[in-house]
Amino acid sequence: MRLMVRNGLRRLLFALVLLAGIAGATPPPKEDQIILALIQRVEARTDLVFVRNGSDHNAAEAATHLRSKYKYFKVELIDAEDFIERCASRSELTRKAYKVRTADGTVRDAGDFLREELRALRAH
Fold first, then answer.
1. Residue 83 lies in a domain
2. pLDDT for 12
3. CA neighbor of 90 nearest in space, from 51, 42, 49, 44
């Protein structure tokens, strides 16, 4: 009897692991569109400097970097908030927060900036 229960539990565990692998966490199409629109908003912000690991980048460079990170991590993401938290707020290598610098020299965390942009996108 114990052996049957153990085998049943093993089969159930195997099935759950298999389903988790199949389901993945890829954002649904609507969230994918929102993430891509968010990256386009970054690309359009030519008035900002994006600071990554101490190096300045223009809007086009920042957007290219975000697109490559999105492409790489897409299967692990759930939604736009997850994208900001896991891909667009800090360096994977150094764990340093990305920054945004405005024309007047004000520096803020890129994650905060992106969450504001996302709120604006979702409001439309």
1. yes
2. 54
3. 51
